[in-house]
Each structure stands twice: as structure tokens, then as C-alpha cells.
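Researcher: Structure for this, please.
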Amino acid sequence: MAAPTSSPDTSTARHTPPAAVRVVGVVFALTAVIALMLVAFAAPAVNSGPHALKIGVAGPDQAVARIEAGLADARPGAFSPQRYDDVEALRTAIEQRAVVGGLAVEPDGPAMYVAGAGGAPVAQVLTATAAGLSQTLGRPVPVRDVVPLPADDPAGAGLNSLALPLVLGGLVPAIALVRLFPGRVGLRVLGAIGFAVLAGLTLTAVLQFGFGSLTGNYWATAGALALSLAAVSLPLLGLESLFGLPGFGAGAVLMLFVGNPLSGFATTAAWLPQGWGAFGQLLPPGAAGTVVRSVAFFDGHGGGTAVLVLSAWVVVGLALCAASARRRTVTA
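Model: Predicted structure, C-alpha cell format:
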């Protein structure tokens, strides 16, 4: 008697969609991903502009009142004037990043004060506003740059180009360390910190001594960049250690497709819509842009909160890595 033969299990084949259907699904899914990426980067750019920019005004009360009214008529909602006693107080406020620029009524007439290093779009808007006032008054309104960009990089291209390398500089090392040292949480942390320090020194040297794009203290700027890189890589390592690939993927999406577009790295956060800019400053890319610009051009003024944000992300990353190491020890 012949042994019974088992028929092949075709349940898997019956439930697997045809190849053509799977191709169509993949095409639509990838298209949706690309569309979302475009929205993530384009929406902040399209909606950016002067929104309640803090600018200083200085001079006699009657003249200042006329200036404030003129600014409101020229660009409704664009400016939030802050009054200062005199020109020196206004200049100090600009140098300390309390305001992005300002108008002062001087003996020879009004003058516009800007900080080119604080963000080119903001300086351009203030310069254009000065030109409009010149036409209204029938006399030139001079523009004085209190904190200019370096002569070797007057457009600030070097600093502006740092945004994506900084995010990738935290993302790529994290990927490499995860693959090279599986399960070795301590080695990953040491590698991430070592890379952040060396990369911070190297990137600052390239921008400051190679391109002449930065003018601040080299060591302070390198420290700011190192802290920024660690604030990206350490949380990613911690998420991967605890939650695996899904955790790493979620962190990477947050850094690259949310934090990067909302960083205001090239324009400063003041140029983004208020809610978006504020949220972006709570993420490492946005805080990094603020602290690097502050250290490189403003002697650190205006960068204190950003340092706290970056430090908090570093602590969170270390805490996640420590929790992962503890869990591995318990289950060993």
C-alpha cells in the first residue's frame, strides 16, 4: 500500500498578492513618502517671513511713535518694536541678540541698524524697510551693520551649508556604530562622543580657517558643534538599543524630516512662523543652529537656552543607553 502523499501547502501562495499588485503598492507608497518629504521641507520655507520680528527703536518719544506707526503701516504684523533709551542701548541689544535690528532717530535723521550675521533674510527685510522709509521721508536712511558676516563669506554660505551635514553627522555615525558593535552599548556611546569631539574640531577648522565663514572663538564653536552632534547621535543610539530598528527609524525621521526643516539654521528661528520656530528650537538641529550662530558671531549671547536643550537631548540619549545596558545585564 502506497504511503499517502501530502499535497503542497498553497495557502501562502493564495494569500500573496500578485507581483503586479505589489509593484503598484510600492510605487504609491514611495510616492507618498516623497510627497511627505516635500511637504516637510517646503511648508516651513513657504510660510516663512517676517512675523513679529523683535526690533528696537530709539529716540525722542514723538519720533519713536511715528516710526512705530510707519513700520506698522509699511509691513503690518512684521515687526514687534521694543523701545530703548538711546543708540548705544539699541546697539547693545542687537549685539546680545535681544532684538534682530532696529531704528534709531539720530541728529541727522533715522538710521537702520542690522546684524547681518544674525540671518541674511532678516537683514534684507530691514534694509528694504530702510529703503522704503527713505522714499517716504525724501532723504536717505543709512543702514549700519552692527554684527556683519565675515568679509571672506559675506553671504554666510558656509554656516548655512552646515545644517544637513550636522544632522547626517549624528545619524551616519549612529548607524555605523550600531552595525559594528551589536549589543556593545558602552562602546557605542564612547564612539559617538569621540566622533562628536573630533568632528566638532574638524568642521570648525574647515569653516573658520578654510573658508573664513566664522569669526568667533575656535574652541567655543568647536564645543558647540560637538555638543550638537552628540545631541543627535546619542538619542538615536539609545532608541535603537531599547526599541531596535523602529526606535531608530522614528528618531531619524524626527531629526531629519522634522528637526531639520524647522531648524531655521540658514534664516534663524525668528524667520519661521512663531509656533513652528519655537518647536524647532526644542529639537537638536534648531538648537544647534542657534548656539553655533551665537558662539560664532555674538560671543555666546542668545545661546543659553539652546545649550540647555542640546544638553537635555544628550542626557536623554545617555539615559536610554544606560537603561538598555541595565536591561541586558538583568536578562543575561
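Researcher: Any notable elements?
Model: The two ends are 54 Å apart (CA to CA). The longest strand covers residues 53-58.
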